[in-house]
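Q: Please design a sequence for this.
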């Protein structure tokens, strides 16, 4: 029996958790009522995707060219559950590429002039049919390859993470646009994000958001990627069981620290409906995140 290579195992580990829950096949969450708003149950269901969306913003600052890491962060939105996936991998394939093969990076800020990165990796058991993998592409472009402070843009098209127990299957699909541009007082961040989730027990759901003109104040004048603080708001929507909930998304003094476990050590991100109900993710210190609903802890 061959073992799973470390790279693909670490990349898709959260999917194994999601499929472990799928393999149990125990319960199915009831869909929200069409006019229920952001209830506590809806906030709880949304919290995983919301955490992943915030973590993805951090990874786009740490290293937007690492498509494997971006996929791993996306997989963190998989619902947590008890039970594991028994997998005896017999078939492994993995291909990763960049176009051009040797990207241009004149200012040596690790952001290429323009490059498309692609990944297609999978592990499967040829007896049971169980397996998991990731496939997709991202384009990264430097706004000015002669200035490390110039900002950059990232476009991710159909980054697809998938898994199967041999009986049930689950998947995550990410599409994203991200732009960081300098202003007179710091940087402006714009992002369009959509994450589709499909599991046997919860069906399909989508979290999307649109941020435009969110401010980012860097800690260092040398590079925005060394740390900084986000402030601003945008629109968001959560769709589940055919019902779409319109939300406001707000970042309040959200401090990005690339040296920190979890990447954030201050501030918060909140999702609120028109009735004033709010899901808040607070980052009180390095490595900690607390979820609350209308001010009460959300477990």
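A: Design:
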């Amino acid at each position: 029996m061959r073992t799973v290579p470390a790279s693909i195992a670490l990349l898709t580990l959260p999917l194994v958790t999601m499929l472990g829950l799928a393999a149990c096949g125990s319960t199915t969450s009831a869909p929200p009522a069409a006019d229920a708003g952001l209830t506590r149950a809806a906030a709880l269901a949304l919290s995983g995707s919301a955490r992943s969306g915030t973590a993805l913003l951090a990874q786009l600052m740490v290293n937007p060219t690492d498509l494997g890491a971006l996929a791993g962060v996306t997989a963190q939105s998989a619902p947590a559950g008890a039970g594991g996936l028994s997998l005896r991998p017999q078939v492994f394939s993995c291909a990763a590429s960049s176009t051009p093969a040797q990207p241009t990076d004149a200012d040596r800020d690790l952001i290429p002039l323009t490059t498309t990165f692609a990944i297609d990796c999978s592990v499967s058991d040829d007896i049971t049919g169980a397996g998991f993998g990731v496939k997709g592409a991202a384009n990264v472009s430097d706004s000015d390859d002669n200035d490390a402070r110039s900002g950059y843009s990232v476009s991710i098209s159909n980054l697809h993470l998938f898994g199967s127990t041999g009986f049930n299957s689950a998947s995550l699909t990410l599409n994203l646009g991200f732009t960081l541009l300098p202003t007179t007082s710091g940087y402006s961040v714009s992002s369009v994000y959509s994450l589709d989730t499909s599991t046997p027990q919860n069906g399909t759901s989508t979290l999307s958001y649109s941020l435009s003109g969110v401010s980012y104040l860097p800690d260092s004048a040398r590079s925005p990627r060394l740390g900084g603080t986000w402030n601003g708001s945008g629109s968001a929507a959560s769709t589940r069981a055919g019902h779409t909930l319109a939300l406001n998304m707000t970042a309040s003094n959200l401090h990005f620290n690339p040296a920190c476990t979890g990447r954030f050590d201050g501030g918060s991100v909140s999702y609120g409906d028109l009735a004033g109900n709010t899901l808040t993710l607070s980052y009180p210190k390095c490595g900690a995140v607390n979820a609350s609903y209308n001010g009460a802890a959300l477990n």
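Q: Thanks. Anything notable?
A: The radius of gyration is 19 Å. The helical segments are 6-24, 40-62, 67-74.
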